[in-house]
Design goal:
Bound molecules: adenosine-5'-diphosphate, magnesium ion
Radius of gyration: 18 Å
Largest sheet: 6 strands, mixed
Structural class: alpha/beta
Main location: membrane
Helix content: 25-40%
Keywords: Amino-acid transport, ATP-binding, Cell membrane, Membrane, Nucleotide-binding, Transport
Family: Belongs to the ABC transporter superfamily.
Distance between the termini: 26 Å
Order of helices and strands: HEEEHEEHEHHHEHEHEEHH
InterPro entries: AAA+_ATPase, ABC_ATPase_HisP-typ, ABC_transporter-like_ATP-bd, ABC_transporter-like_CS, MetN_ABC_transporter-like, P-loop_NTPase
Strand content: 15-25%
Protein name: Amino acid ABC transporter ATP-binding protein
Oligomer: single chain
């Protein structure tokens, strides 16, 4: 987010994005079951351009499923998900483009083990976006520098630390010029000393105005970088408010209980 965007503004109603921002991702009445398990219950969530929304909640509450529905790694049973007002495409090239528009960074870095770091970053743009190898290579160098990995491009993922691999995963997602980045517990698999190097990259992305949905237990990051905190439990969004309100005056007992365990 730019400094200008951080300038004081009238507060929006809790649970909605700031009125001066264009809605980018919208979930309306979304329902999802896995067999008998109702994992997403009537989810309404609008994410505006440039917003950073941190999603927290107990394990099993549906956070990963929520992320996965937005790039259609999971289908939904009812409701509607739109990106810039367009329904998610069901298949084919349009679906591949959607996946490129929605960058995803997982807990397990999911890099291609038999490709170099740089190849990991250039593969998507050349295959899906039709970018030339030369342009993709230049962009990969820029992005690797931006995540603090200049000069690491020729290595293979296994030669890097977990924190470095996750930063490659971020560079790889950014190489597609996504409209929104989803992070699903990006630091949960990392040794403690590597967590900050990943959070620092995410914080600078947030400052630069990237639209981000971040599932995390890192409450310092939530306080520092989030415009909104969404608290989920049992497939429902129970709170959707600014970080200050969430951390100082959570309304639901489930949220109070959760915070008492992790803070
Ligand atoms: P969270 O990310 O908040 O921990 P998830 O979205 O991963 O929660 O999971 C929500 C619930 O759905 C959990 O009970 C989980 O076991 C279940 N679940 C997730 N994925 C599947 C699946 N592919 N098939 C069946 N159940 C699933
Ligand atoms: Mg999860």
């Amino acid at each position: 987010m730019s400094d200008q965007a951080r300038a004081p503004q009238p507060s929006p109603a809790p649970g909605s994005p700031r009125p001066d921002r264009r809605p980018l991702v919208r979930l309306e009445g979304v329902q999802k079951h896995f067999g008998a398990l109702h994992v997403l219950r009537d989810i309404d969530l609008t994410i505006a351009e440039g917003e950073v929304v941190v999603v927290i909640g107990p394990s099993g509450s549906g956070k990963s499923t929520l992320c996965r529905t937005v790039n259609r790694l999971e289908t939904i049973d009812a409701g509607r998900i739109t990106i810039e007002g367009q329904d998610l495409p069901a298949e084919g090239k349009a679906l591949a483009r959607l996946r490129a528009d929605v960058g995803m960074v997982f807990q397990s870095f999911n890099l291609f083990a038999h490709k170099t770091v740089k190849e990991n970053v250039t593969l998507g743009p050349t295959k899906v976006r039709g970018v030339s190898a030369a342009d993709a290579g230049r962009r990969a160098d820029e992005l690797l520098a931006r995540v603090g990995l200049a000069d690491q491009g020729a290595k293979y993922p296994a030669q890097l630390s977990g924190g470095q691999q996750q930063r490659v995963a971020i560079a790889r997602a950014l190489a597609m010029d996504p409209k929104v980045m989803l992070f699903d517990e990006p630091t949960s698999a990392l040794d403690p000393e590597m967590i900050n190097e990943v959070l620092d990259v995410m914080t600078s992305l947030a400052k630069e105005g990237m639209t981000m949905v971040v599932v995390t237990h890192e409450m310092g990051f939530a306080r520092r970088a989030a415009d909104r905190v969404v608290f989920m439990a049992d497939g429902r969004i129970l709170e959707d408010t600014d970080p200050e309100t969430f951390f100082t005056a959570p309304r639901h007992d489930r949220a109070k209980d959760f915070l008492s365990k992790i803070l």
